[in-house]
Amino acid sequence: MTTIEFNNTIVNLEEQLRVYAYRLTNNREDALDLCQETVLKAFMYKAKFSHNNLKAWLYTIMKNLFINAYRKKLKQREWMAHETNNNLGKVNVSFDNPYSTQNYKDIMKELDKLEESLRTPFKMFLEGFKYREIAEHANLPIGTIKSRIFQGRKILAEQLADYS
Fold it and tell me: What residues does the RNA polymerase sigma factor 70 region 4 type domain cover (predicted)?
């Protein structure tokens, strides 16, 4: 396959790649990033392409990139959770006042007072999980998770009104 044919085929497959990327990520921006990364890898390793089916090769590249990124995110979350647990009493959050450590402890105390159905999704959201991931973990619809996080925010805002 010549370079021109290779480039034209990739351009013609662009929309299909975007659809597949969106199925993997469920996020428009992440899907576009994944497409761009896939095409970049394809161009970098064009010399290694020896199949007749470029579409299958691109899908394989995309799937592998997605899996590797997902595993990397999981490791980062595990590390962050481990660090948070190890440094629970040593956390020094920087606010605009000299009582920041005490403020953090007060906020965490109020967060722990939330009922379990609100507290767990809210904490997961603070840890960086996406709504979809929280919904899958809790086996609930995304709308329910969004509502619970909103309710948790509202309750905490009322309880911590002195801090604003």
Answer: 106-155
Domains of the chain: 3-79 (1.10.1740.10), 91-163 (1.10.10.10)
Nearest to 25 by CA among 78, 77, 67, 61: 67
- From CA 104, how far away is CA 129, in angstroms rounded? 21
Q: Is the pTM of this model over 0.70?
A: no
Phi and psi for 127 in degrees, rounded to 5?
A: -80, -5
CA gap 1, 39 in Å, rounded: 16
Are 65 and 37 in contact, with CB atoms under 8 Å apart? yes
What's the rounded Cα separation, in Å, for the pair 142 and 145? 5
CA 49 to chain centre: 31
Closest CA to 124 of 137, 114, 115: 137
